[in-house]
Amino acid sequence: MATTGSANPASAGAPTPDRLPARHALIGRSTPIDRRFDAARSDLTDIRLADRIFAPHYAAPVARTVLGIAALHADADQRGDALSEMLPGEAFDLLEEVDRRGWGIASVDGVVGYADIAKLGDYAPPTHMVVAPAATLHEAPDINAAILGTLPMGSRIAALGERGAHLLTDHGYVAAECVRELVARTPGASAIATAAASISGIAERRGGRSGAGVDADGLVFLAHDVAGLAVPRFRDLQLAALAPCEPSPGAIAFFADSAGILVDSDTVVIADGRVRRASLGSLAGDPRFGAPVAIGRLA
To answer: Where is this region: Disordered (predicted)?
Structure first.
């Protein structure tokens, strides 16, 4: 990781131009880069990309744990809408710290960006994921105990042990019924549809992908994540990976500028100011949506 006040990347062990292997010679075709996912800048690149990208400096990632919902921005000034976000308990591969901003890669959706360094703490491997719309952290393993905080759907926790119907974490106790083990995945169309339907009423939020708020792409991503399925974060990649199918529970309906999850053959969960249900017929008559441009599955 590079830690600076005026960006001087740490490059211990990183290749330098005079000792790069021959495959780094500037010949042949250039390697396509998607800067949403490839941590490569003109001055600094993730060392794990050294076999693909020639750069003046490389940085090795340092794992951090996200302490609270953290917006992830494409630009260092962090102005404008967030590109995506990170959720409590997730890991962040930190590559550079400058002026209280961290640049790196979000572990769950793979997005590269800048985040507030105050939202990052010591790394603790997550063990469980919040699958309820929200999970309350209590002071003791009792639903009547004092509330210490709330974790939105999609958050991760590092469980330290069980206390009856609760799990102990560094930040309090959480009801076991609100989470699932990360290794205990139950992928399936019904799980995707159930996850989407359960967050009806939450706010639409640009860059959101949690029970605290979603954008259209984030709704698709979250519903699959809760079901244990890894899918692309952004609309263009979701569409590119889509396998067409008939309208059915768990399928994705893409509109001209939005997307939603079908809970039956005619009802779709969409982000429209708030997450809500709507019939395909009603959306077809709405100029903001229209008829679906594609319906299919990502898994």
So the answer is: 1-22
